Amino acid sequence: MNYKKLFKEIETELEKIEDLGEVATYIPELHNVDPGKFAIHLTTIDNQHYSLGNSNDKFSIQSISKVFALTMAFNLEDEKLWERVGVEPSGTPFNSLVQLEYEKGFPRNPFINAGALVICDILISRLENPKQELLKLIRDLCGNPDIGYCSRISESERLTGHRNTALVNLMKSFGNIKNVVEDVLDFYFNLCSIEMNCKELAQAFLYLASHGVNPLTKERIVTASKAKRINAIMQLCGFYDEAGEFSFKVGLPGKSGVGGGIIAIHPGKYSIAVWSPKLNAKGNSYKGMRILEFLTTRTKSSIF
Length: 304
Ligand code: GLN
Hints:
By secondary structure, the chain is an alpha+beta fold. It has 12 helices and 9 strands. The chain has helices at about 5-15, 65-75, 100, 115-125, 130-140, 150-160, 160-175, 180-190, 200-205, 225-235, 245-250, 285-300, and strands at about 20-25, 40-45, 50-55, 60, 195, 255, 260-265, 270-275, 280. The strands form 3 sheets. A 5-stranded antiparallel beta sheet has the order 3-2-8-7-6. Helix 1 (about 5-15) crosses helix 12 (about 285-300) and helix 4 packs across helix 7 (about 160-175). It starts with a helix and ends in a 5-residue tail after the last helix. Glutamine (GLN) binds near residues 63 and 283.
């Protein structure tokens, strides 16, 4: 694959795309971003790097960090994890409450907010200092100690996180939250506040492109079977009620965040991070999806 040529084509394509999305406002602090920012960074499993735009600018990775939390919880709980959370697409928005009521507090998957809140509850029960351990995993994965939580974002979420508060309370009433509600929310809001740039993100997700081993350090992060399963959940649930559309158009396992970031993985080949803050109606980066669609179509390199 001639990635250099591909990135030249992406540059031309970008000029043709009208950015039709809107920056998220329901978390007020997320609005403090230049809507015109754009970055893309591709890292191959043999450590080649290709990027465009503001790929060294850090942004709020939001729900993308749910993949790191799942990775930790899956390692700690193995198959027991699935007694607390499912692996089915929800077909509902990320912060929806309806399904959770009639499915008795059992979230469909670890990437909708309800599922990620259960994962946070598990990590709080199992770890001495979950916030520190989560950061350690991410810092090790991308080989950069300069990764942290953003208190402005987590505080902004705490002040406006009424739906997340409702989700934890509803699950607690069904017995699927074991810790104090405030502690679960605190960890969740911090999880969502992590800031990274596209280069760091692409680097950090390489283990899912290479059967669970970080190809740069040769360290095993998860078993090959767990890597397969995490990728499968990303494929089916990474974009909430737009997971089908992302599979249809892009055709890679991936995960989005309301900060406008998207990570996508081509197992055996590369990981790619895109950032463009304006979101479509489903809360996924408008331009990010368009450019990934162009990339996999142009290179015939989706997994399908
Ligand atoms: N922090 C956001 C929330 O809880 C995460 C949502 C997302 O990125 N899809 O609403």
